[in-house]
Amino acid sequence: METPANLMEKLSESVEAYSRTTFESKKLKALQTTAVLIPPLVSHFSVVPVVFLFALVLNIGVALCLGDLLGKNYHGFFVVAAFNLVAASVLHFLFPGWIRKTVIDLIIKEALD
């Protein structure tokens, strides 16, 4: 017949083994989530500088073309700047949480897949 001390020792070993297994399981789940989540975010964020550079060059080209049409180069830059200000204001005031919500949805979607 087993003594209470032996039973407590077995219980303690079982709890320790369960704790170790649970910890390893959580660690592997976190690693899997990170491995699934990070690569798409890196690829999306690596495209941002390219799009920014494209938009910059496009704005300069449009401004120079408009400047030729209006007679002075700086007039084209004023027109493009005004357009960019209107576009930014529309995005800011009409879609206040749209970009934030889109990024959060992307992160959650990648984490749950």
What does this structure look like?
The structure is a single chain. This protein is mostly helical and 113 residues long. It has one domain (4-112). The protein contains 3 helices and no strands. The chain has helices spanning 4-70, 73-94, 98-112. Helix 1 packs antiparallel against helix 2 (73-94). The longest helix is centred in the first third of the chain and has 67 residues, at 4-70. The chain is rod-shaped and about 100 Å long. The model has no long low-confidence stretch (mean pLDDT 85).
List keywords for this structure.
113 residues, mainly alpha, single chain, 0% strand
Mean pLDDT: 85
Distance between the termini: 51 Å
pLDDT under 50 segments (min length 5)?
none
Instruction: Encode the helix/strand succession as letters.
Output: HHH
The Rg value, from CA coordinates, equals 29 Å
Query: What best-fitting shape do the alpha-carbon axes yield?
Result: rod-shaped
Count of separate structural domains: 1
Strand content: under 5%
Helix percent band = over 70%
Structural class: mainly alpha
Q: How many DSSP-defined strands?
A: 0
How many DSSP H or I helices?
3
What summary fits the major beta sheet?
none
